[in-house]
Write a structure and sequence with these properties.
Blueprint (H helix, E strand, L loop, with lengths): L1 H21 L2 E6 L4 E4 L1 H7 L3 H4 L14 H12 L4 E8 L5 E12 L5 E10 L1 H23 L3 E6 L4 E4 L1 H7 L17 H15 L5 E8 L7 E9 L9 E8 L1 H15 L9 H18 L2 E9 L2 H8 L1 H18 L5 E6 L2 E9 L2 H16 L2 E3 L2 E3 L3 E8 L6 H17 L5 E3 L3 H21 L3 E10 L5 E12 L3 E3 L1 H11 L2 H21 L6 E5 L2 H4 L4 H12 L6 E6 H5 L3 H13 L2 E7 L6 H6 L4 E4 L11 H16 L3 E4 L5 H10 L3 E2 L10 H11 L1
Parallel strand pairs: 16-17, 19-21, 21-22, 22-23, 23-24, 24-25, 25-26
Antiparallel strand pairs: 1-2, 1-5, 3-4, 4-5, 6-7, 6-10, 8-9, 9-10, 11-13, 11-16, 12-13, 14-15, 18-19, 18-26, 19-20
Amino acid sequence: MQQEEDQLFRLFRVFAPVVDQSGISYMITDAAGELVYVNQAFEEMTGYRAEEVIGRSPSFLQSGEHDAAFYHDLWQTILSGKVYRGILKNRHRDGSLLICEKIIAPITNERDEIEWFISTDRDLTESIRLEEELRSSRERLAMVIDRAPLGIAVASEDGVIQEANAAFSRLVDLPPDELPGTHLSRFTHPEDIEEEMVLVRALSRGEIPSYSLEKRYIKQGDEPLWVRVHVARLPDVPGQRPLLIGMAEDISVRKKAEEAILHQAFHDPLTGLPNRSLLLDRLYSAISRARRTQELVAVLFLDLDRFKSINDTLGHTIGDRLLKHTADRLLTSLREYDTVSRTGGDEFVLLLPGLSDGEQIMHTVERIIELMAEPFEIEGHELHIPTSIGVAVFPQDGADAETLIKNADVALYRAKEMGRNCFVFYNPDQNVYSHERLLLENEMRRALRENQFQLFFQPQIDLATGSLAGFESLARWNHPQKGMISPGLFIPIAEETGMILPLGATVLRDAFATVARWREQGKEAFKLSVNISGRQFYQKNFLSDVMDLRDRYRIPPHSIELEITESIAMQMTPSTMDVLLQLRKEGFLISLDDFGTGYSSLKYLQEFPLDCLKIDRSFIEHIDTDRRQRGLLASIVGMAKSLELTVVAEGVETEGQLSVLTDLGCDRIQGYYYSPPVPEHQALEFFSRTT
């Protein structure tokens, strides 16, 4: 027995250096379970020296991680002569946990009695720690990927999804369990599939390392979702199919912002119509096509004749709504492939491509004029907005887009000069007119600075007495080189350019100064009428300006008669009505000028604080020869009389007209029958003669 024991230990000592090099711990216990041998690896693994543990039970290594049942089963195994294999958690001398892969083999004698237990331990502590860290790292990575805001998916080279995170599932609007095995064509917009598959094949062949692409995903019941994808090839794994990994980012908000910016760059923000940039682009294309097909292209330059007055009287909110309604109305009058653009203010440019003859253009223009003649109903206001249109046609009126638009604009101004609410086709002779008009506009600005405007006066005669009742003051332009320039030329320019405001202010000031000057000369029993433009009347400071002039020149208000037009009356608002009432309260006389030229209505004759009704010259011209016109005039005079208004007839030129007006009971007349408008010194002479 002793000989066998010695032989066993000698054998272990012979192999100890080799065993120790393996890092495997060996220990031998006797049948009673006491240690009789440990190798160097044991010492290094546990932190105990051999002399400390020989003769002791290995139980001092127990960590407390296993319960009594665990050790009972272990002993039952080895006591039955079987080899035990398992993972044992022991405790290092320093207190740290020591995880080992343990094998315990019982050694028996010739009587089959257990005399020794040989135990080996392989330290798994570090490898298990690394495995745990790797597992934990993988779990964290999986959690990060699954919770990532970007959609992440792994797919085969032919575009079949293998796995994907939750964000990707949300992007494609498919449940996570349906994604594996799904081809990307199922949720990719049909127009984007081919482009991406070309890139996928290039990536698979190694022609590109990765690709980025903006594409659309289809979502059930929703608009396509714009995403940006970045796809790369995963490193190859032997024995496995090549895989691709892709990340998808929702860029729909950015895309919508880009679309909005692009829309704003090429569309009018108020009406949503194409702007000048988009119009030019479409016009270039239309001309290019027309050159090939020998078709006509028409450009219509359209202007709302009384828009500025609407804006000034009813405010920009009503003006904006009018522009929107105009845009809608124009769109309904054209073909689907025609273009309606707004180029600024109240100007619209219409593009009509693919025309075969001029009759099509004429028909379209007439339809627009007719359509725009219908009143607009906006916030309780019935607005009548006549329209002027200038037309230029490719190729005869211009070979390029800019020339066509310019010539249509020239034709538009000619239409305005012809009385508005009409259309004019471009004629090369109009360019001369347009150039002259531009020169006149510049000279008019200089005239305002240099006080070239002066007042002329046309007398008004009281028919009952034949005496002078007053004068109408009229602006006249005495050009230093060209002499007197017709009001028919400079008044429309003043209204269109805004110069009517400084001109109106000058006329009003000079009228007050004239009354003061004449009163100092003893001429008191008369009234001086002053024309007030719509833009001037609707200025916020108009009332205070009139009051300031009254105080400055110290004249009685009843010596000034302020003439407003029917357009002002039509667009009266509560605030502007207050201005009229205040002027009337202060003693100024209010006259309605050019009655009958607009949309004459009893409503504002009844409601407005008027003193005088001036009948336009168009109602006077044929009253001595036209019975119907005479009857109409009789009705107007009778209506005015019933409202206790003074009636003044303008444009009286013949004795026959005078006779009829006298018979009808007209109060005052003015016109060339008595005198044309004259400068101040002649007016004073006329004043002296008639009184």
